[in-house]
Amino acid sequence: MKLKFNKVPLLIIILMMFSNCQHENHPEIPHDTAFFIDYRSLTGQSDGIAVIELDPEAPDFGNISHKLELGVGVLPHHLYYNQSKNKLYTTALGGSYLYEIKAEKDNIGQPKLVSATPIDTGENTVGENLFFTNDGRFFMTFMGGAGGLKDGSIGVFNANNNQLIKTIKAPIQQNPNKFIMYPHGISVNEEKGLMMVTSTIHPDLTSGFGNTCTLIDLNTYELKETYQVADSPADLSSPVEVLLLRGKFPQYALATTMLGGDIWIAPYNTATKKYDAFTKIFDGSTQGLGWTLEMYIDDNNRLYVSFADPGKVLVFDISNLPNLKLLKTLTADKGAHHMVFFKTKKGKEVVAVQNNLLDIPNLNSGTISVIEIATGKTLGTVNLRSKYGILPESIEGTNGPSNYMHH
């Protein structure tokens, strides 16, 4: 009896030790180094969204832990959080063009994708960028518009129920001086009541090219001015992104030109309540750079700009605009595009660069480069093309926006 009695507490102790060991191996931790990526399949399977670990110091670096399939040919394109950071969306070049994504955490805190709800975009096709405002609206650029040769539109949505409120259209055929055509980039300065969109390229990438940005009244939706963002009317520079600096930053508009390979700037005019003409502030060709794409700003007046060819991220100081001071150049891969910013588990400040632009030859590395900002050293590279047969299209944080200011 004595022997059997002693076995019981011994068994309890063993079970407790095992339980504690299990807890130590699987603690609930904040997954600040796990990210969402939009992706396209290279094997004819469904495109979708995935969760990937991007901390080079993590044992599962580069591993996809979860996927949500959206369908063959959907081509999800840009990931965005709403103003409250409690809803996630992706735009798409195909499929339903816009989806609200439901995500949650599993029992150990790992991000998990649950579902995608298509949103009715009306006649508007080829979804590109979003911008959420504080008054419960969001705006979306549709590079294809209703499908015409020189088309393009902006959808105005109710951010609470995702209902389309209005479609803003202004065909170049009706007014060649004030128009919306092939809109891609969008930025808003709510304090000034202004919105600006770029004119980039026809969705088939061959039938037409833009070289302008258009300023729009945020409340009346009336066009205020269309600006040339090119060396000449014949220079089809394809402005791709625009950023209206706001808040504490110098009050300028910045634009990147995809085919021009440059950065342009326009000062805000308090008298006209518009922006003055755009001028070129950085000529990519002088640095052997082309295909200028995304702009991100941190809280210390640093501007990060991606150049898809040959795959660089340039870091500028914007504290003395219109003077743009180049601080450093980070090397990514061909197709350098979207970025996220985070700290590794050991505290290194890094930027992860998604290297792919629409699977365009020579701009489609299909990798994600993780670069230490202070040293410029590449700490790790994930090759999604070879590892998973997919190409990353965009990237975003799993705990909210992973940047200070994007568009």
TrEMBL record:
Keywords linked to the UniProt accession: DNA-binding
Molecular function via GO: DNA binding
UniProt superkingdom: Bacteria
PANTHER family (UniProt xref): DIHYDRO-HEME D1 DEHYDROGENASE, PROTEIN NIRF
Protein name: DNA-binding beta-propeller fold protein YncE
